[in-house]
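Render this sequence as a predicted structure.
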Amino acid sequence: MSPRCPAPLALLAALIAAGAAAPPAAADSRPASRGPYAEASLGATGMIGPGRTYARLGPAFALRAGVDLFSWLSIGGRLELETHEARVPPPPEGEYFQLLAAAGDLRISVPAGRFALFADGGLGITRVSTNILAKVDILDPGETYSPLLSAGGGLEYQLQNRHYAVGLAGQWSLLPAFDAMQTVGGRAYLRYTY
């Protein structure tokens, strides 16, 4: 019996040699778009700190727009609307209030293929739609505006069409004029980069 290379080993050796001789795979030819962007999000926001007892978790909607200065840095602005059921002693009962915010923000991203981790922060102003929280001393009589400070982060995924991305994000906000009321929320979003 003469020593021979078994057929499966010969086939494996041929595949390895062919793989070594093949040209390297082309890099991803569709990098994410950069430039002006628009974003819409839907989520939920709740209160922490002094306001926690007086407001229920509520829906939140936001629109963002801005520009990517670099692949890792964006600046923009946002408009947000939150609705909460007030939980103050009666009367009245079943009252709702809205928080409307306008802010500028800065976003730093760390891209990794189609994914990107990001952190963002912003400054702006918030308006409350009613004085229902004055009943529990969160607002002073006649007070409707507060400065806004926010920070957050999330994970973004670029879709096959390089202009679109989806993501999940969280955000913490401080409203110092409203008895230092704080909110935390989560959102899902769709982003389009031109």
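Summary. The chain has a mean pLDDT of 88. The chain has one domain: 32-193.
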